[in-house]
């Protein structure tokens, strides 16, 4: 079952229609947009070679400094393409219309991307981080041979799942949490170290008045999105069944404070200037992982094992509405 | 959850918060000539967190090669006023026109369970300094630490709370060297985790030319 899921993820791709920003078009008639598939597990800068080939004849002179935008929002190049799509298109757009720029990357907003090397570094860094979350150290990634690192990266570039699995299996980073499920053997020693799963949460707040998520307004600034890079932790004694909903609540405790627990904690010192959000429930409007809206009762470990990205991170896009305060 | 992680070199988020508040209070008490460290709580989805956030120290001058040459002039004028315990950067003329200023932020990494330093430098006209320009001005021993140590290297990454690129010292080695530092005899066996941040900064500060006054380490 997990093999099928891995295949699904590796084959997943977003149909993209990428046009060149009008300020960089020096020819008439303007070049048509490029229609290209972006791998869900891939990254936008990796599409630069075919984009460059397609647009080079019309580009103004100068050095390339490639970046992308969606409806004016500069796109963070180190977020996998599938995650960007799930997060930014409340209503999935097919094809997804993006704009590419070859000049003038907004350095005050975007960390610079110097092509494939930058993406590779970011990917390996995330892999190291995931290894640290899972094992408490990154030795297995640090000790990868140059050849293995090269092959791993090439497999990702080309969407070669078998090649990737051959090398990633040597890292022994999965599956998640098998030992956190109670079994007769595991009761022997309850280790003091929790099981940790690498998770990256991207949260959009949607007004209560928006009935259909698909009508959510376009994101015009990354300040409207909360990004939480925090491992999900569970102690073995607690182990067993953890649902996706429970996992999200534990990752976002202040968002999901229930009114009943607020009565208990009324003696907590509160910032007098803080809005009374702590009294509110937040309502989960939509949860997307790899383009799927999973059932909230799905076992979280199973979800993580099936739908994680190649760098071992589970990326979850969450749309939340804040409930109005009860009086 | 409060951890007793001194042996591992890491600390829990709750301990980071406690240590950050303690550290900023001690700094502000012992270092009145210098700007204060300020705790900025994390604000997410309209809710201000009670214990998640980061420390900021902004628009400061670091002990850089450029500032050191200014410092020499002051030293020559009045060497008796120098006290080794004082942060020398405070003696630099704050009105010099070509001063480079820095913002330093300290945030917590939930992955590595250690503090992380984020920093940016500016020219007097507000233009950001590039990493190469920053490295050029760091004191030579800082550059040496950066080049030789497998534990610290500078990269450019997105700030965990602001959507902007900052320079940072990668935290993956921090737990290892903090473990060594905390277990060394000069700190004793019973170092409270509240002292974590001053201890951490005593090392990290050296890589960016930030001097930490010794009074910070006296137990009060």
TrEMBL record, chain A:
Domain Autophagy protein ATG5 UblA: 9-102
MF term (GO), any: Atg8-family ligase activity
GO cellular component: Atg12-Atg5-Atg16 complex; autophagosome; mitochondria-associated endoplasmic reticulum membrane contact site; phagophore; phagophore assembly site membrane
Any Pfam family hit: ATG5_UblA
InterPro entries (UniProt xref): Atg5, ATG5_HBR, Atg5_HR, ATG5_UblA, Atg5_UblA_dom_sf, ATG5_UblB
Domain Autophagy protein ATG5 alpha-helical bundle region span(s) in chain numbering: 116-172
Chief place of localization: cytoplasm
Xref: Gene3D superfamilies: 3.10.20.620, Autophagy protein Apg5, helix rich domain (1.10.246.190), Phosphatidylinositol 3-kinase Catalytic Subunit, Chain A, domain 1 (3.10.20.90)
Localization (cell): Cytoplasm
Keywords: Autophagy, Cytoplasm, Isopeptide bond, Protein transport, Transport, Ubl conjugation
Family of the protein in this entry: Belongs to the ATG5 family.
Quaternary structure note: Conjugated to ATG12. Conjugated with ATG12.
Name of the protein in question: Autophagy protein 5
Organism: Rhynchospora pubera
TrEMBL record, chain B:
A Gene Ontology biological process term: autophagy of mitochondrion
Alphabetized GO MF terms: Atg12 conjugating enzyme activity
UniProtKB keywords: Autophagy, Transferase, Ubl conjugation pathway
One Gene Ontology cellular component: cytosol
Family, similarity comment: Belongs to the ATG10 family.
Protein name: Ubiquitin-like-conjugating enzyme ATG10
